[in-house]
Amino acid sequence: KEKIKLQVSKAANYSISLYTINGKVIKNVVNKQLVAGSHTIDLGNKHMPKGMYILNIKTNTIKTIQKVMVK
After folding, report:
1. ∠ at Cα 26 (40, 61), nearest 5°?
2. What is the predicted pLDDT for the residue at 49?
3. 62: Cβ contacts below 8 Å, ≥ 6 apart
4. Which residues of 10-31 are buried (b: 16+ CB within 10 A; e: fewer)?
5. Average of per-residue pLDDT values in the chain
6. What is the mean pLDDT of each run of 10 residues along the chain (71 residues)?
7. Which of 56, 61, 13, 58 is nearest to 34 (CA)?
8. Cβ(19)–Cβ(25) under 8 Å?
9. How far is CA 62 from CA 2, 28, 45, 51, in A?
10. Other beta carbons within 10 Å of 51
């Protein structure tokens, strides 16, 4: 399974979604409160094709987009 590490500086409700490089939603990975600290997020698909994906991370105050490479 593919996993990513996420460092949360302040507890908040997080919404994390995984997209193809073309913008198609693959799945909503997280939609819950995360406490401050380090988290390992399971992308949940052990059969993901190799390639580049987009991870959209949102809270009430931030929106971050990160590229994720599946090898």
Report:
1. 60
2. 86
3. none
4. eeeebebbbbeeeeeeeeebbe
5. 91
6. 87 95 94 96 80 94 92 80
7. 13
8. yes
9. 24, 17, 26, 26
10. 11
Residues in the chain: 71
Q: What is the pLDDT of residue 45?
A: 67
Amino acid at 39: H
Among 63, 58, 11, 61, CA closest to 37: 11
Q: Assign 32 to helix, strand or coil.
A: strand
pLDDT for position 70:
84
